[in-house]
Amino acid sequence: MLRIVLAEDSVLLREGLVGLLERFGHQVLAAVGTAEELTAAVTQHVPDIVVTDVRMPPGFSDEGLRAALRLRGDNPRLPILVLSQYVQRAYAEELLDSGDGTGVGYLLKERVGNVEEFIDALRRVSAGATVVDPEVVRQLLRHRRDPLAKLTAREHEVLALMAEGQSNASVAAALHVSEGTVSKHFGSILAKLDLNLSDATNRRVLAVLTYLRG
Amino acid sequence: MHPPSLWQALHQRRYVLTGWPWRCALYFLTSVPLGAALLVCLLVLALAGSLLTVVLVGVPLLLTLVLAGLPVAAVERRRLRLIDPAVPLADAHQEPPRTGPAAWLRTRLQERATWRELGYSLVFACLLWPLEAVVVGTVLLVPGGLISTPLVMATAGGGEEARVLKLWMVHSYPEAFAAALAGLLLLPLLAYPLGLLAAGRAQLTRQFLDVPDHRADVRIKELSRSRMRLVNAFEAERRRIERDLHDGAQQRLVALSMTLGLARLDAPDEPLAGLLAQAQGEAKAALVELRELIQGIHPRVLTDRGLGAAIEDIADRSPVPVDLDLDLPHRLLEAVESAVYFAVCEALANVAKHSGATRAAVEARAEKGRLVVCVRDNGVGGADGAGGTGLEGVADRISVLGGHLLISSPPGGPTSFRLQVPCTPAPAR
Q1: What is the crossing angle of helices B112-123 and B69-80, to 10°?
Q2: Is the domain of B274 the same as that of B310?
Q3: Closest partner residue to B255 among A12, A88, A143, by Cβ?
Q4: Pick from A158, B45, B256, B390: most CB atoms within 10 A?
Q5: Least CB-CB distance to B261: which of A10, A113, A139?
Q6: Which residue of B has its CA nearest to A12?
Q7: CB contact set of B348 (below 8 Å; sequence gap of 6+)
């Protein structure tokens, strides 16, 4: 059973989600309609996972996402599942950049229709996995046909572990190599995937996303 | 057909036989008393105004002085028809935006026409009419004096003598008639300089009292403002539709899809489960369509993250790979971001649909108050900016913002689509 704080401004959808989550035996500690209430509810209840909409009052911009990122800033281990109406690379990247990129999910809202998959994604995120909507991944990788073919077996392993959201240190521990070796592998992965963005964190995200499609 | 102008008349052989010389003379003759009266009025107003300013009564008098050009110009416009009837001068003043004397006064004081008319009045009162008096005096009095010599001789001179133009004496009728003949010959000769001076005078009056440029400026300004308002209204409407669809239809469809998903959990029996799955599939398809529709109306990322993120987004969606080189350090005005976004959308859509290109590039940079965006491809070219295509609409939207669009697309390619818009950073949102 997960203890959940839910933020969604549409009453219809919020009630539906509460029903859905409870139906699967989870406990909704608070279901709120604004980003501010979300922050307050998380501070008060300390949930296992936060499920939030991107677009929230008062500005109906990306307040939900902002609030989630702030909460991650305060507590990098807080799992967050963001539901979005759109595929937005910028949103996905910011989310994956928060903390060490573990325990976050970015799903299109319509995935909740597939209730079992949705609940499964929720469970995985709360357990520390990184879940990105296949639509986002598809869009990102449309132009990079089979980029993974160029990677060595070891680079595949490194990327796989990173895609699970592990830090360089934990990847190094899992593969029984030094952290420096992991960095070197990662560097060559970036080169092979032709990811030459300037921001290292974004490159990591893109590499991970690349892997997720494969 | 317009009546011929004075200039044209001067070129005709029968000029002296037409009414033109007389019209010119009449014009100058009426100038003199008008100008003199105007000078007196202006002097009185100026003197009384300045003296009485101390007791504040003078202020309205000085104001009247400023506005004195209005009636003068009205009279002068009519009087000008005597010597320049071809295109009558129109009133150079604008309608005040509101009724009431205050609005009228404000409009008049802000108009260039008012000050030009005042300038004209001053020149007329101080300079023109005395000159005109000399001109008309010379032209009428010299031949008049010569022609009237026999008459003077018969009356004042008692048939003995007459003083011609106060210059010399004649002592016999033949001499007197010779002088009269000279006067008669001089009269048509003087008609030419008279006509020339009048034509110059008409030109001068037009320079002062006709301000067609200014009126066109005002109209153009108003037109561009109203065009801008229309575009803004259109933009606001797009955002409203996007919001309504997002907050209404989209949320309901998601809720419907979710309810159907829950129902499927409870309905394991085949016919029902199958139907529910089908219904859910339909709901999902509707959601996808709706999402794309909303994206086309006004993409959320544009509002939230600005032009750079929005261009990245369309580049992601483009079926043709797109290289990006964006340097947009700050948010721009909403209208600019939106117009440029849709311009890039249209360009990339054309690349995908018509160009046959395998690669496209988008460059955008904002510098020195200008946003320059360039979309290139390696396709077959032949794109056309005219002819009711989407590109024409793009060009219109860009031109509303004071920018312009250049398309270079020779047959065989490549196509380059370049736009420039003046831009300022948007106030922080």
Answers
A1: 70
A2: no
A3: A12
A4: A158
A5: A113
A6: B255
A7: B314, B315, B318, B320, B322, B360, B362, B375
Domain end residue (candidates: B267, B296, B325): B296
Asked whether the beta carbons of residue A112 and residue B301 sit closer than 8 angstroms, the reply is no
Can you tell me which residue has the tokens 């001789």? Answer: B153
**Computed from CA positions of residues B104, B107, B109, B115, in that sequence, does the dihedral angle turn out positive or negative?**
negative
DSSP, collapsed to helix, strand or coil, labels residue B358 as coil
What ipTM does the predicted assembly reach?
A: 0.71
Residue that has been written with the tokens 């009453």 in this structure: A11
Note whether A85 contacts B: Cβ–Cβ < 8 A.
yes
Chain A, nearest residue to B276 by Cα? A113
- At B111 the pLDDT is 84
CA distance A126 to chain B (A): 21
Q: Encoding tokens for residue B268?
A: 């394991």
Structure-token pair, residue B182:
């000279």
Q: B425: which DSSP letter?
A: B
The predicted model gives B60-79 an average pLDDT of 89
Residue B429 within a domain: no
Residue A197 CA to residue B53 CA, distance in Å, equals: 73
Same domain, B233 and B249: yes
Query: Do B134 and B79 share a structural domain?
Result: yes
B231 has a pLDDT exceeding 90: no
Q: Which residue matches tokens 């110009």?
A: B73
Domain that holds residue B169: 6-209
Sign of CA dihedral B58, B62, B67, B68: positive
The mean predicted confidence, pLDDT, of chain A is 81
Q: From B303, which residue of chain A is nearest by alpha-carbon distance?
A: A61
Q: Which of A13, A90, A109 sits opposite B301 (nearest CB)?
A: A90
- Mean of the pLDDT values across residues A154-160? 81
- State whether residue A16 sits within 8 Å of chain B by CB: yes
Contacts of B316 in chain A (CB under 8 A): 89, 139-140, 142
pLDDT tens sequence across B185-196: 888 888 888 888
Domains, chain A, in order of start with CATH, read: 3-142 (3.40.50.2300), 153-213 (1.10.10.10)
